[in-house]
User: What shape does this take?
Amino acid sequence: MVKIVNISRIETDTEPDFMVEAIHRQLTAISEKITGSFTPTIWKRVTGYPELMVVTGFESLESQEEYEKLFLMTPTGEATYELFRGAPNVDRFKIEIHQGCGPGQAPIDGYLTFNSHQADLGHAADELEEARYSIDSMSAVDGFIGAVAGTSIIVPGRIESMIFWANREAVEQSIPIRVDTNLRMYRKMV
Assistant: This one.
């Protein structure tokens, strides 16, 4: 069972579609060598600057660290960094809320909305409860297929949430009109 989610967001100067399959094969080969690692998924940002998000689940922080070491020792690790604008923005969080499907079960061409925000000092538990309430509310929207949320392992007090959708229309229906959000929308490629 996935307990830790690792997120790597990578900006690119070009449309990265041509390299996604090759990157996915390499990441999957690494994942298959590690007990407690689940097949990575790759998501492409739909709005804003070009960005890929690689999402991988792990049973433990130890299996995630082993995966990272293997990745960095491969030629793929170095080549991947050279294809993009610098090093990826990496975070990982402990799943504390899980409803429906997770990243590995979302369909190809499904959508994900991602939110990351810093709670005020001493209020992470309150913010996590707010995330739970939001996810419960979103679950009533036609096209909602699942969600995971939790607190960052890297940045204390940061709340991370991912909501999975069957299609873009569901995402758009879920966002209230004229509400400014920090949501990033992605489409699953592999």
Q: What stands out?
A: The helical segments are 17-32, 61-73, 75-83, 124-138, 168-174.
